[in-house]
Amino acid sequence: MYRPLHFVRHLSARGYPVTVLTGKLSPDDPQDPTLLLRVPSSVRVLRVRHLDPFRGYQRLKRLFSRDCTTPRSAAPPGGSPSLAPPTWKDYLSESLQIPDRWRSWILPATLRAVHALRLHPPDVLFSTSPPHSMHLVAGHLSSLLQRPMIIDFRDPWVDNPFRGDSHRFVEVAQRRLERQVVEAAQRVILNTPAIERRFRERYPDLAHFLTITNGFDSDSTSTMAVSGGDDRPPDSGEGRPGARLSIVHVGHLYGMRSGRYLLAGLELLRQRSPATFAAVEVRLVGRMEDASRFQELVDQRKLTDVLSIEGPCAHAVALERQRRADVLLILGVESEGPEIQVPSKLYEYFAAARPVLTLSRKGGAIEEILRVAEYPYEQADPDDSAQIAAAFERLVRRRGETAGRSVDPGNLIRFRYDRLTDQLEECLNAACAAPWT
Questions:
Q1: Which of 145, 333, 339, 381 has its CA 20 to 30 A from that of 12?
Q2: Quick one: which of 368, 324, 350 has its CA closest to 419?
Q3: What does the domain layout of the chain look like in residue ranges?
């Protein structure tokens, strides 16, 4: 949720009165209290509790059976989804998650917002997803308050590879709901050019799409890319005699961004070039789906000497980890075709001014952004262990070339959130000025 936080901060600093409608955190939700401190005091926050029936059901299962089974569409790292035929419970579960698990939040959130805003309605409504239920809330508010609506997709809705396989009736319902909110909006914002192209192909009769990428905030990072300086942080491993090449991944590993092929690539690297294998260290910082199972795989492959799992940390700590790295790692989606999504961490990597190793499809959305930024990177397919091993070899061979110094700060200015907010502000003003009924 860094993207909406940065937009709120910059719009508030420009004098716009901002009201945020959001949920209430539960003890099970990942939390970083330091980020809440960054919300300006002038911002009005309306919190509405989400009573998630699925989370309640899982708690009851743990209480009475102590045995929670893996969902039908889920798979452990290196495993495959279950091929068991769907049951009536699967159909019921999927129908109750249209458009997503926040469905039960739509009505109470709408009522809370109408009550709070009825005397002073906003000039424009801005909705960001996922979860995509937010757009349905915005659509209701747009009709009730008679105000224009802008919707923002941080991830795809119907084309999201992380959603897993769904039954036909679910796909039909999701496509119908997406079209409903897209047609009702005055503007539709996508966060990669690839997703914008996909929307334009799906809705050739509409022309109100634009791309505003994710980015980094210059006041929360102190790096070469932000300041325009030419010095690398003194604690980088690069250039220290005998130091391993430090390769760091920051972010959430889950679903089709599992990291299992990274392990296969490291194992092959050890077989092909033991000296190169011994010259690298890989650290995974952030949340991980089924971390205990992933650690088992690391142990089984005897990779503990070069790969460590550091787990989640505060955002400020994550930024520090990025600044200390020699190379920053991005994992793309392990799908057949080029990905259309870009992990938001890539833009913070830009601020750290470190070369990037991207395990993603050639010609996909990640490589497209790297090329636009003219940023130094090595690339390998996300599911090709031979390419991954070869990329590690190239990085070790070229570590003395000080690739980080080739980063041109001028190419990165467009990804600063103050510049991105310029685009959003223009979009908001255009929506308010356009005729609307």
A1: 145
A2: 350
A3: 2-67+99-215+416-433, 224-414
In this structure, what DSSP letter does residue 96 have? T
Q: What is the DSSP string of 390-428?
A: HHHHHHHHTGGG-GGGG--HHHHGGGBHHHHHHHHHHHH
CATH code for 224-414? 3.40.50.2000
CA dist 324 and 57 (Å) reads: 43
Q: Give the integer Cα–Cα distance in Å for 68 and 290.
A: 13
Confirm whether 2-67+99-215+416-433 and 224-414 share one CATH topology: yes
Give the rounded distance of the alpha carbon of 351 from its chain centre: 17
What is the value of pTM for the model shown?
0.85
Mean pLDDT by 10 residues, the chain (437 residues): 92 96 81 84 95 64 54 44 60 77 94 95 97 97 96 92 76 95 97 97 96 86 43 46 87 91 97 96 94 95 95 90 95 90 94 94 96 95 97 90 66 95 96 79
In this structure, the chain runs to a length of: 437
Q: What whole-number distance in Å separates Cα of residue 376 and Cα of residue 358?
A: 11
Q: Would the CA dihedral through 230, 232, 233, 239 be positive or negative?
A: negative
Q: Whose CA is closest to 126, among 429, 331, 332, 434?
A: 429
Q: What is the CA radius of gyration of the chain?
A: 23
CB within 8 Å of 178: residues ≥ 6 apart: 132, 157, 158
